[in-house]
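Renewal narrative, Specific Aim 1. Our central claim is that a sequence can be written position by position from structural information alone. The example that follows is taken directly from our test logs and has not been curated for this report. It begins with the structure tokens describing the chain, in the order in which they were read.
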């Protein structure tokens, strides 16, 4: 009687796990990456992004963005209204400028060719994906409820 082999873990999951282990162990390098098929190279890039994302708590990231945005709004509201900045406002402005100088995009001393990452291509690609998702959502909602709003 022939034995039937049962696979509990899909082959795709095994391959992804193997790639991640190779990345984390340092076994996967530029030469080995270049030899991978395009689909596996794409998977490696996704894994690399996921590994980088593990160290960034999205809630903390959102808080940082909120604080920067509201600090900026506070200063801009005063400037638009023609009000002078207080000492506290000037401290906020100083800190915002320090934060801006840390980032490649807002650091006036850094050329785009020196950026660590192609932020604008990434933002454009993600914007397209978000807008496509929104369009699909509105279509689905309209098809089901008859209305796009609400």
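The sequence written for that structure reads:
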């Amino acid at each position: 009687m022939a034995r039937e082999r049962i696979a509990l873990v899909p082959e795709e999951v095994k391959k992804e796990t193997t790639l991640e282990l190779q990345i984390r162990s340092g076994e996967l390098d530029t030469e080995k990456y270049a030899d991978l098929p395009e689909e596996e190279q794409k998977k490696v890039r996704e894994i690399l992004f996921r590994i980088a994302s593990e160290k960034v708590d999205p809630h903390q990231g959102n808080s940082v963005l909120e604080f920067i945005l509201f600090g900026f709004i506070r200063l801009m509201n005063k400037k638009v209204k023609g009000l002078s900045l207080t000492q506290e406002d000037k401290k906020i402005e100083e800190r915002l400028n320090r934060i801006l100088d840390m980032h490649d995009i807002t650091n006036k001393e850094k050329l785009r060719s020196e950026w660590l990452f192609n932020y604008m291509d990434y933002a454009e690609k993600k914007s397209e994906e978000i807008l496509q998702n929104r369009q699909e959502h509105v279509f689905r909602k309209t098809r089901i409820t008859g209305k796009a709003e609400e």
